Amino acid sequence: xxxxxxxxxTYHNHDTGIGHPEQVARxxxxxxxxxxxxxxxxxxxxxxxxxxxxxSTTHDLEYINxxxxxxxxxxxxxxxxDTIISPGSKEATFDAVGSxxxxxxxxxxxxxxxxxxxxxxxxxxCSQNKAAGFCILNNIAIGAKYLLNKYKYKKIxxxxxxxxxxxxxxxxxxxxxxxxxxxxxxxxxxPGTGSDQEKGKFNNxxxxxxxxxxxxxxxLIAFEFALKKLEKFNPEFVLISAGFDALEEDPLAQFKxxxxxxxxxxxxxxxxxxxxxxxxxxxxxxxxYDLKGLQDSSKRHVDALIEFN
Length: 309
Ligand SMILES: [Zn+2]
What we know:
It contains 9 helices and 10 strands. With about 300 residues, it is α/β, with parallel strands linked by helices. α1 packs across α9 and α4 (about 90-110) runs parallel beside α5. It is globular, with a radius of gyration of 17 Å.
């Protein structure tokens, strides 16, 4: 079976201003590369149009309305110090959520085996009612809620490999025994959370904080610990917050991962997922700010999705 690649052109209009690291080119470099490669094992799909009802499983209606009203008619506005929005951000924001919904429906309807959503803005720093760190709605959290509500799953695992702690996702699921949240991240670092003492009400949060300077070998050892936790949980579906900012070249953090590590990490997640949930895995782009590194490592990430599906 094929691997789904979910994207749309609307990310082009999410203008964050000159010099902002969360820029249009982040998704362009990924998409242009996949167009060029033209791998027949990829099934391209557009995001679904989504209702407020789907978003309101995760964010309050008040917050959703606040976000909708915040998009400026022209120029720029901001939702927090880092989270800049422009008129075109609205469609991009809702398409980012719609991408994970389309991916889930595609896997459940057996259109493809697994999927990668190449979209922006990212989502994992957005908590229930607060935009932060380039994130406006929490795409992956809405996806997890959709799996619980629509498909009646009881055990969803979210593996967050972004170099920053996914504080928003952790917040949303802190007291939800149906969701296991595992995160590897640079610590102490932005956004400040993510110590191993934050365990969740049902021991459903697994933080693996690692120091600045963590290299491939050290990271992969720590990641095996994450996989043990994943196995113990026995997930029915695995979602990946795929940040590619743990690369050595990334300007926003200080891990020293190599492109090839993303192939290995993805392969290990898929091997585990095959044992427990028939390889039902959906990945969505979070961070990654070195354009060449992002292009290469997202390609290797998708290579593994194709190969081990
Ligand atoms: Zn990040």
